[in-house]
Design brief:
By secondary structure, the protein is α/β, with parallel strands linked by helices. It has helices at residues 2-13, 19-28, 49-57, 77-86, 98-105, 121-124, 138-150, 168-176, 189-199, 220-229; strands at residues 39-43, 62-66, 91-94, 112-118, 152-163, 202-208, 232-238. Strands 3-2-1-4-5-7-6 form a seven-stranded mixed beta sheet, with helices on both faces. The structure holds S-adenosylmethionine.
Length: 239
């Protein structure tokens, strides 16, 4: 079933996602690292392949996804329909902006012990400025991170997956002479970390995404270099 969903999405959006590649990313960088989590929140859940897979692997988990489904940000009505048709009773999707979800639920006693935000923050705060320097909405970002902290349990973990500003794909676009992705709107892991710390989150780790084919090369130095080459990184935080 998951293969089928991935195949349809690839066809519709011209992507090349494979199930083994997806599972590798989930196990190595994503929420499969925290299998004991009971209440899990996905901010900007989008197509929700991660919720679909994880909610089937961990049937004791309670999964909440939040997303307004903004087509220009990558996911539209069809992604929403497909997601709600593919999930079971342990998944609830709120078609809302995270800011609205948080203000509705800020006094709720039901907290989350894992929060996942992948490829979403730079859509909420879309700018070519450096978010931790001269960006006018810097305080809004800190505020969002503080509000997320408030709905987290004392042992909660937060995973942020983001696209990087400088990477091989960007240089390749420059060489080809046309842009498919606007890397000016992405930020460095250091910028997000700066603001996360200001909001009170503690940083456990940060990792560059290393494709499965190159994972055998991994070591401290290789990983440092990969921060300048890879198009994605992951930040791991705790309360
Ligand atoms: C590029 S998609 C990422 C989807 C998915 N998390 C992934 O990793 O593939 C970005 C998503 O962020 C959502 N989004 C944009 N603004 C948002 C907001 N204020 N609150 C929650 N989600 C938002 C968009 O609708 C879109 O589905």
């Amino acid at each position: 079933m998951i293969n089928n969903i991935i195949h349809k999405r690839n066809q519709r959006k011209g992507l090349f996602v494979s199930l083994p590649g997806f599972l590798y990313t989930q196990a190595k960088y994503g929420e499969l690292r925290y299998q004991s989590a009971k209440r899990i929140l996905y901010i900007g859940v989008g197509h929700g392949l991660d919720v679909i897979v994880n909610s089937k692997l961990n049937t004791d988990g309670i999964y909440i996804g939040v997303d307004p489904y903004i087509a220009t940000d990558g996911n539209d009505d069809l992604d929403y329909e497909q997601l709600i048709q593919s999930t079971g009773e342990n998944v609830t999707i709120h078609r809302l902006k995270i800011e609205d979800y948080l203000s509705k639920h800020k006094n709720s006693s039901e907290k989350f012990d894992l929060i996942v935000i992948t490829d979403c923050l730079h859509h909420i705060f879309w700018t070519s400025k450096f978010i931790d320097r001269n960006y006018s909405k810097k305080d809004k970002i800190i505020n969002l991170f503080k509000n997320i902290l408030e709905i987290a349990t004392p042992d909660a973990k937060l995973i942020i997956g983001e696209a990087s500003r400088y990477n091989l794909r960007r240089y390749w676009q420059l060489l080809k002479g046309f842009k498919t992705v606007d890397y000016y709107s992405k930020q460095s892991h250091k910028a997000w970390i700066n603001l996360l710390k200001k909001a009170g989150w503690k940083i456990d780790d940060v990792k560059p995404y290393i494709p499965i084919k190159f994972s055998f090369l991994e070591n401290k130095i290789f990983n440092k270099i990969m921060f300048f080459l890879t198009h994605e990184y992951y930040i791991y935080c705790r309360k």
